[in-house]
Design goal:
Radius of gyration: 34 Å
Order of helices and strands: HEEEEEEEEEEEEEEHEEEHEEEEE
Distance between the termini: 23 Å
Number of strands: 22
Structural class: mainly beta
Helix content: under 10%
Number of helices: 3
Strand content: 35-45%
Low-confidence stretches: none
Shape: elongated
Length: 342
């Protein structure tokens, strides 16, 4: 995937221009790639495990240089991992995770994301699965009309999803490069083909911490607080002749000539729709001059929020593995050009 390699190189040059970046992991899937990656035994016994095979796919400039690894066959679980050169502690540093993916199969339902896994999960890596603790999960996920890019951080043992889904995701059959940058000032950026599609504060966009403020649980709504936006108009009075029956006897009906009251009973006029019937009367509404809006308890400082507790939300002290753990209904996604750097 030459485009992905170009973008990876461009990012490296950009980072190097401002600071000497250290590369902790780089993978372009050459012919020796299998010596660096460990296929997970997860799902092997069930016979639902898939394979990653090296290929440049249908679209490429150079079959060798553009080769990545493709998921195969359909409707399988695909999982494997590789170890970084050394454990990565991003204290005081940027954390950059980048990779390229090409959904040549027109992915209809499945994942295209990658995970960074801590050294503490080392014992579980041979059977790496969705249950193994990870630090960061990043990349596209597509299923029917649901299309978004995952950015999930693990914090205090919980996987924290972005409060608003990131819907910027490529759905065509070409190569696209996804980049996540986490800064030591607790801000982040998400790039798609080097174009920024999201950025902001970690604390604002993920619920790592309790809210700084909460509604005062001791507060109560004043008795005279009026939440009615509209009230009945006292000047609107129901007309005296409003109440009329829905149906009335037909004044033009006549008793049939052959009607025998002894045999047929007392004759009654059939009913017809009353032309004067006006339905149920409803009093007009008017703006309530005493309306104060919907009452909410005032905000107070949250006693559960500890000032300074979010100073290192960005930090992961023991990143050690890069891993895939995917399911796809239709296989054929080609991954390449993985980079982990600061």
């Amino acid at each position: 995937m030459r485009f992905g390699a170009y973008v990876l190189g461009a990012l490296c040059l950009s980072l190097a221009a401002s600071v000497q970046a250290k590369v902790y992991f780089e993978e372009t899937f050459d012919k020796e790639w299998e010596s660096r990656w460990v296929k997970s035994s997860w799902k092997t016994q069930e016979g639902t495990d898939g394979e990653f095979v090296r290929t440049a796919g249908k679209y490429f400039a150079d079959a060798e240089k553009d080769a990545g690894v493709k998921t195969t066959p359909d409707a399988r679980f695909y999982a494997m991992s590789a170890e970084m050169k050394e454990t990565f502690d991003n204290k005081g540093k940027d954390l950059v995770l980048q990779f390229s993916v090409k959904h040549e199969q027109k992915l209809d339902c499945g994942g295209g994301y990658i995970k960074l896994v801590p050294a503490s999960s080392a014992a579980d890596m041979p059977a790496f699965s969705g249950d193994v603790p990870y630090s960061i999960m990043f990349g596209p996920d597509i299923c029917g009309g649901t299309k978004h890019t995952h950015v999930i951080f693990t914090y205090e043992g919980k996987n924290i999803l972005r409060t608003k889904k990131l819907t910027s995701v490529a759905t065509d059959e070409l190569t696209h490069v996804y980049t996540l940058i986490v800064h030591p000032d607790n801000t982040y950026e998400v790039l798609l083909d080097l174009e920024q599609v999201a950025s902001g504060e970690l604390e604002e966009d993920w619920e790592f911490l309790p809210p700084r403020e909460i509604h005062d649980p001791e507060a109560s709504k004043p008795e005279d607080w009026d939440e009615r936006k509209l009230i009945p108009d006292p000047s609107d009075v129901k007309p005296e002749d409003w109440d009329q029956p829905d149906y009335i006897p037909d004044a033009e009906a006549e008793i049939p000539d052959d009607w025998d009251e002894e045999e047929d009973g007392e004759w009654e006029r059939p009913e017809i729709k009353n032309p004067d019937y006006k339905g149920e009367w409803r009093q007009k509404q008017m703006d309530n001059p005493d309306y104060k809006g919907i009452w909410e308890a005032p905000m107070i400082n949250n006693p559960e929020y500890v000032e300074g507790s979010g100073d290192e939300l960005y930090r992961y002290s023991d990143l050690k593995y890069v891993a895939f753990e995917l399911w796809q209904g239709k296989s054929g996604s080609i991954f390449d050009n993985i980079l982990v750097t600061d």
